[in-house]
Amino acid sequence: MSYRYKLKEHEFKPYKEKSMATDQLRARTPEKVQHDGRPCQLRVLTREVLVVATHTVGGWKAYIGLVAGKNHSQEWPEVLKYGDTLAEDVARFLFEDFAGEPYDR
Question: What is the SS3 string spanning 13-79?
Answer without folding.
Answer: CCCCCCCCCHHHHHHCCCEEEEECCEEEEEEEEECCEEEEEEEECCEEEEEEEECCCCCHHHHHHHH
